[in-house]
Amino acid sequence: MRVAWTQKAEKQLDQIFDYIATDSTLYAYRTVEKIITSAEKIILHPRKGRIVPEYERDDIREVFLHPYRIIYLIKGEESIIEILSVIHGARLLPDEPR
To answer: Does residue 84 contact residue 60 with C-beta atoms inside 8 Å?
Structure first.
């Protein structure tokens, strides 16, 4: 299995970095690194993350790295974990997962 990031998730990661970097570039690097590491660990147990309540689909799950939600799609037939979104827990998700 491997992790693939959508363009949307990569853009969100850049936005998180930019926001945190206004106060501390060091902390911004550390936060983004922790998010990426958490995403990479999904490979070990893809179904360990909870089903995203807003979507109620078994193949779309999430793990938390406070205060962020890392939302991913399990593509079993392709052996890919696709990171769909990295979003602050206080924000609303779009109606569709993509």
So the answer is: yes
